[in-house]
Specification:
Chain lengths: 178, 456
């Protein structure tokens, strides 16, 4: 689907792998803790943050389950993400008050060399569980493909593609990032 | 005239069941009161499937979704899954998505292009015209004397379109689509005929589930701008840095209009809805277009093209001018809906403007959208609180805007002064009640008299 997917999978050294895993785990914790601005700081200025919706099409249908010009729950640049974060922070964001409890679980982290030095193609799986008020519990599971860029002694996310398993989102909203 | 529906040839229905008694006690619209039972009761819901969803003209597709022969979409009419298929002669047909052999679902894709539909169970194969063409081990059926011509896919009773919107009904007795929409077509043209190229759907369909009664969604879009200033405060601040416009302060410049239960609330600020997408290209496009629409459709309708407004086509399809989201609230029992949403644009709009709308619609009115995010919870709990036995015996208020009827505007349909109103919601429930009480279309009272030609 994206250009990065076709690169040869050249592994990285163990230390880089470890640092990138730590980066992703920390990112998940920032989301669990609703530290929206700290989370936003992990996104590059030129971020493309994309979560297409899944269409059920026959295998023979070359159009495939998703594409850039079709449905998406996120198809965001930095400004879009900033706007979403600013809604979360409004006292009048009623559907966030009382707060939703989030668990972002990240695993299966694979890291490969990117096209340019200091860039990395990172695959991971996610489980996202949200609990709200008494009995609203929503589960989303899927896979992510990121392009990370080394910045100083940390990283920034340049591209993120999120593929979820559901085609009908089995929840009233999606009030988190993945 | 006033009889239960005739059965369709191959659909042998049980005689229409006894209808829920004393529905008239559930609403006192005159005094703006209604019962909560209509959002909770299973028997009422079953009767809705029969008398609303198996009877009304329901939106099933936009022409642009199925341009070529064999193009199809799978959608729902109530809980009935249907396939809407473009034919070789350019016409459109609709079929129940179920095999007349043993009932399996025939098509599992949401959309695509097919030369035929082949059932996975025993391999019955249907043409795109629905006819049974052949099957695996066909000699066995020949020996049993199966009449293939009598075992095609079940067609919908009627299918027709208006300004690119395709509707179907499962009731052969239903009046024509033109009659069903009636004078509401005058307003529909403001959006679906504002430009000579008409509209198209772009970007596919976003689907989600909300645990609410379908009528809470429909009544919200039919007339409830009131909630926007409160519910969507956070979304407005996120998108444009300030609160929702205080429409309650300007009743002179805004209306509720309704016809046959369809309703539209709007003001005349041209771009109020569109502005919430926070995109300059869209604003520029609408401002340049507006004088041309004025020439085409007159001043009033040209000011509706992206104004603060919302609309529901009875019973369960809605759209927002300006944000350009079109959606159907498919019922899934009394306490759930499956929401299907699309983005519509003018076919002749520049590609960059179309792209901006596709993005903007999903940013605001999809399950992750900054506006829609706050709607679902309201509707879920307006529904769920009614599990309480005593709770659901407390009636609800629907009385805004009494004595606001206008009779001198020259506009078609029932017109009310002020966008902050519940006139459309009352008209929606009046239509609901009329259909629920009537054993057949012939018994549905014709309250609204059309002034427009019924031949579209
Ligand atoms: S159920 Fe479809 S072929 Fe038998
Ligand atoms: Fe809303």
């Amino acid at each position: 689907m994206s250009a990065v997917a076709r690169l040869p999978e050249i592994p990285v050294d163990a230390e880089t792998q470890r640092r990138i895993e730590q980066f992703l785990y920390r990112e998940a914790r920032l989301l669990d803790d609703e530290r929206w601005d700290d989370w936003l700081a992990l996104m590059a200025e030129d971020i493309h943050y994309w979560m297409p919706t899944m269409e059920n099409r026959r295998r023979a249908d070359k159009l495939g389950a998703y594409a850039l010009d079709r449905g998406a729950l996120y198809n965001d640049n930095r400004l879009d993400l900033t706007r979403r974060v600013s809604r979360f922070k409004q006292p009048s964001a009623w559907a966030e008050d009382p707060p939703t409890r989030h668990a972002h679980v990240i695993s299966g982290v694979e890291v490969y060399q990117g096209e340019r030095t200091g860039e990395y193609v990172v695959h991971s799986s996610f489980v996202n569980y949200r609990s709200r008020v008494e009995r609203d519990n929503d589960l989303l599971v899927g896979r992510r493909e990121d392009l990370l860029r080394a910045v100083g002694d940390s990283f920034q996310i340049v591209r993120r593609k999120i593929l979820m398993t559901q085609s009908v989102l089995m929840a009233k909203n999606l009030n988190t990032f993945l | 005239m006033c009889n239960a529906n005739d059965t369709q040839p191959r659909l042998k229905r049980r005689p229409v069941g006894r209808s829920v008694e004393h529905l008239e006690q559930l609403m006192d619209l005159e005094h703006g009161r209604m019962s909560r039972d209509v959002f909770w009761d299973r028997d009422i819901y079953e009767q809705e499937l029969e008398r609303i969803f198996a009877r009304c003209w329901l939106f099933v597709a936009h022409e642009s979704q199925i341009p070529k022969a064999g193009d199809y979409v799978s959608t729902y009419m109530g809980e009935d899954n249907v396939l809407i298929v473009r034919q070789k002669d350019g016409s459109v047909r609709g079929f129940l998505n179920t095999c007349p052999h043993r009932g399996n679902k025939v098509c599992f894709a949401d959309l695509g292009n097919a030369r035929q539909f082949v059932c996975n169970y025993h391999g019955w194969a249907f043409g795109i015209d629905g006819a049974l063409k052949g099957m695996h081990a066909s000699s066995a059926y020949e020996e049993s004397g199966l009449d293939k011509s009598a075992h095609g896919l079940h067609p919908v009773a009627q299918i027709d379109s208006y300004r690119g919107l395709i509707f179907a009904t499962l009731d052969p007795q239903a009046p024509s689509l033109a009659e069903y929409l009636g004078d509401f077509r005058y307003y529909l043209d403001a959006i679906f005929d504002m430009d000579e190229g008409g509209t198209e759907f772009i970007g596919g369909c976003v689907k989600s589930v909300i645990q609410c009664n379908w009528k809470f969604a429909s009544e919200n879009f039919v007339g409830d701008i009131l909630h926007a200033g409160w519910t969507h405060d956070s979304g407005a601040k996120a998108m444009v840095g300030g609160p929702v416009a205080e429409v309650h302060k300007f009743p002179e410049q805004s209306y509720h209009v309704n016809f046959n239960g369809h309703g539209w609330e709007f003001n005349q600020d041209i771009v109020g809805n569109a502005a919430t997408l926070g995109d300059k290209e869209i604003m520029k496009y609408l401002y340049v277009l507006q004088p041309k629409v004025a020439e085409r459709l007159g001043e009033l309708r040209s000011k509706m093209i992206g104004a603060i407004s919302s609309c529901t086509l009875f019973p369960n399809s809605s759209f927002l001018p300006g944000q350009n989201t079109f959606r159907t609230w498919h019922p899934r029992g009394p306490g759930a809906i499956e929401l299907h949403t699309w983005t519509f644009v003018n076919r002749n709009a520049p590609q960059a403007v179309k792209d901006a709308w596709r993005k903007g619609t999903m940013m605001t009115f999809s399950p992750s959208g900054v506006f829609e995010m706050d709607d679902g919870e309201n509707w879920e709990y307006s529904t769920r609180t009614n599990s309480g036995f005593v709770t659901r015996q407390q009636d609800l208020y629907l009385g805004l805007g009494h004595e606001t009827r206008l009779t001198d505007t020259g506009l078609p349909g029932n017109v009310y002064r002020g966008q902050i109103n519940e006139a459309n919601q009352r008209a929606f429930y009046q239509r609901w009640f009329d259909l629920m009480e009537a054993p057949s279309w012939g018994c549905v009272p014709q309250r609204d008299v059309a002034t427009m030609e019924v031949k579209a």
